[in-house]
Amino acid sequence: MIFFLLLLALVAAAQVAEFFLPTVPWMYDAHVYIVPVIVFYGAMALPFPLMLALALFAGLLLDALTVQVVGGKVEISAGSSILIYGVLAGLMHGLRPLFARGRWEVHCILSGICTSLILLAQYLMISFRRGSIVFTREIWWQIGGPGLIAMAIAPILFWCLQWLSEVTAYSYGPERGRLE
Amino acid sequence: MGMSRTNLIALLIFGAILGYFLSFGPETTQKFKAGVYQLLSPFLSSGSGLKKQITSVRTGLKSLEQLERENAALKVENRELRATNQGLRDAEEEVNRLRHALNYRERSVFRLVAAEVVARDSSTWWRTVTINRGRRDGIEVDMPVVTDEGLVGKITTVSDTVSVVLLISDENCRVAAKVEGSREQGIVSGERVKSGLTPILDLNFLSKQADLRPGQKVYTSGVGGVFPSGILIGIVKSFRVRELDGQAQLTPAVDLSHLEDVFVVTGRR
Predict the structure, then answer these.
(1) What CATH code is assigned to A2-20+34-167?
(2) What is the pTM of this model?
(3) Which CATH number does the domain B29-269 belong to among 3.40.1030.10, 2.40.10.350, 1.20.58.220, 1.20.1600.10?
(4) Distance, in angstroms, between A136 CA and closest chain B CA?
(5) Out of A20, A70, A130, whose CB is closest to B51?
(6) Does pLDDT of B15 surpass 90?
(7) For B193, which of A48, A60, A139 is closest by C-beta distance?
(8) 8 A C-beta contact, residue A3 and residue A168
(9) Mean pLDDT, residues B111-123
(10) Strand, helix or coil at B83?
């Protein structure tokens, strides 16, 4: 339970930190997103109910900070990020046994892909609302760039979180049936 | 393999909470967003201060490296003096900047509330900044935000102590505009994704005969009621004729990527 609470605190801290992280100019100003990597780590490390709680918390924060209400219209409705996080974290959770056997590389790659999928989903939603869809090189970089960055930082973050789980005496078990 | 009872209950609770959030209307969403911003405002403000300190230390280290390269023999006292000088220069620069801003506030025809940018947009698809003024300072949704150089954007979310500003470089921020030296009027909006180093604004719905020249200034027209007339938006970069209308591309009057101090227009004097 301590480890889960720490993950919640880390998600909140990372969400605030993202406001101050510079973009990557040579990737067409792609943003650096840490929160998805933490959530997807949680998806593999936590049992199903806690994984959902983490996805709910992260989605709620993302919704609150990104949703724009302009002229009385909501572009991406509150709750959509919760849904996206829930679905993607659920998929990652399915690969939990692999992670418990110490195979991290698949999840590092998937963390990157899922980060890009979040951005793609957001982009499709706003395109639908704005009534036009365009895919330029810049837009592909804005979607793919953060995914590549997430892939690159995932091993380091996973290692740190693994260390944190050991410090808090949290042990993984793919078939654990009880709440930690 | 069936789902355990605990997992099923967790999934149902998740679904119920999700349904609750998805049922939010614009007003509830606005309140929810403002509430979360209010909770995070102390962290955003302290994060902004921390970032400034880190930048300052980094700048200091750079100048020390240069000094070492150029003057390897300089004594430690000299280095300290130079560092102090640098600090004073930074302070002087800040004093000048604030004095400039103060002058603008005094001579402006609008009632202005000065604000500092505490955080930039963390999302990919929206161009926003967060400022350290909120409801307590008389800020309300849709109030225009300016600098002494021109229009910055408008307020979209207000909490007690911080507010979110939608920049004019965002596709959703639409401003009624008129062109200097002509009768042309149109709507300015930003791009969905920045395609160059500096954002470009589009001025749409001009007549095909507009024939705007690079360098012409574009101001707010006051139509629509959100933005008062006469605020500089940008300068014409190019003009092209489309199938149904004319479109000009503008360079924003304000450097939106380096915003530090802004003013919220709360009314006319």
Answers:
(1) 1.10.1760
(2) 0.81
(3) 2.40.10.350
(4) 9
(5) A20
(6) yes
(7) A139
(8) yes
(9) 86
(10) helix
